[in-house]
Each structure stands twice: as C-alpha cells, then as structure tokens.
Amino acid sequence: MFAIVQWLRAVPIRWRILSIAALNSAVVVVLAVLIWNGAKVLGSAWDDVRQVRESDKILALLESETSRLQNLIHRYINQPSPELFAEILLLREAVLGTLTTRAANRPDAVGVGRAARTRHRPLPQRLRRIARGAGHHHQDL
To answer: Domain total for the chain?
Structure first.
C-alpha cells in the first residue's frame, strides 16, 4: 500500500488531475451506455405493452362479435327466418372483416390472417340444412 502511495506522489500533479479527469470521463461514458441501453429496453417493453393492449382490444371485439353470432345461430336453428339469416351473414362478414383488417396486419397473428382470407362459404348451406332438420325434428314431436 505504501509503495502505491509513493508511486502516486512521484507522478506530477498535472498527470494525476488528467488521469482523474480521464477516469471520470470513462465512468460517464459507461453510465451513458448503460442509460442508453436501459432506454432502448424500456422503449421495447412499452411497445410490447401497446401491442398487448391492441391485441386485447381486438380479442375483446372478436369475442363479443362471435358470441353474438353464436346466439344468432342458435336462434336461427330454433326459429329460422330470412331476417335472422341475413343478420347472421352480416355479422359473419363483420367477424371475418375484423380478422382480416385488424388481426391480419399483426406480425404475431400470421395464421389468423390466412384463416380469415380463406372465408369458407359452406356456412349458409349448413345453416339451412340444420334449420330444416330442426324444423322436422320439432314437427315430429
């Protein structure tokens, strides 16, 4: 320890001040890099939070639309009517539109967009067949 103190005293004061300033500058650069890195991580985390909120909104909208669609289909099975059938088709298109426009633009929902674009068309025929079968079933009772 004494040897280090003697060595430091042997160095001229100018060099000691300059070395302290260089050390302080190095600490400032390290702290700036750490702050910059932390800011990038925090920004990325906030972007993730925004994405999750947007996904949550899309899922809530899809849940309400699909729930309403399911209720309409059940009503149509029990009491078929052209107005109800038209409402089912409109709501089905709204659900598919939501999937196509909102979910398909999200990088984390690649399969959703592909599924929404396929738009299976047999739904109306299946609904009509189910309604006819339900009507016959009620007539048999």
So the answer is: 1
